[in-house]
Structure formats: structure tokens, C-alpha cells
Prior knowledge:
Elements: E1 3-9, E2 12-17, E3 22-26, H1 40-62, E4 66-78, E5 86-98, H2 102-116, H3 118-125, E6 129-138
Parallel strand pairs: 5-6
Antiparallel strand pairs: 1-2, 2-3, 4-5
Amino acid sequence: MHAQVQWLENVSFKATSASGHDVIMDGSAEYGGENRGARPMELILMGLGGCASFDIVTILKKARQDITDVKCELQAERADSIPAVFTKIHLHFIVTGNAVKEKQVAKAVELSSEKYCSASKMLMDAGVIITHDFEILEAASESA
């Protein structure tokens, strides 16, 4: 895997993934940025959410759960000193579907956390405390 990051101006950068997708990163005005893109640490948090959500969706589909939506809301705390690394991250999954079984969602969250999510494993190995919970919503039925 590889990526490229190119300086645009001030504290704005364009990152290009190996698959050819671009992401703009920028800092706050406080650091000379113009708020034209996500902060690099925000991208790490979003990457964790994407990695874990990928697992959850894949596991639940394999378990033949009728899911219609999965959201992951993340809350993170950072150290007060430089480097301001993540110290705690909480992932809250909102799984929507038809008769989705709580046991299957719990198992999916556990498997993602403990076995499959590379981003989670990497952050935990660096000392970040990562917690998870979930809720299940019944999909809205379509009326005729």
C-alpha cells in the first residue's frame, strides 16, 4: 500500500491514495489554514470508523442479517500535551434493519474489535483505549 501527500499552500495538503482517490487536508485558521478540508487526526478517526463499519457490515451480511443502514458515531479524547495523540475513542454503532438480532450485532462488534479491524488493533497497540457499543433500530416499513 502506498499514498502520496502534496503540499498545496499554507497548511493545506492533497493526499492521493494508491487507488487514485484524493482527500484534501487543511488546518484551522489558528495554524494558517483555511478550513478547506479535514484535519489529519480527523482522518485517522474517520478511518477507524470506516474500518470497523466495513467489518460490521460484512459480518452481518454473512450472518444473513437484513441490514438497511449502519452508522458509526465516534468520540475521541486527545492528550493535552504535544504530541496530542488519541487517548480514548468510543465507537457507537447504529444498525438499522429488519428483525436484526442483538446477538449477531454484538458478535460483529466483538469480532471487528478483537480480530478484524486493523486500524483498531494499531491504535490499541499504541495505548489508545477503544470502547464500543451499539443500538439496533427497526427499519421503517413502507406503507402502501
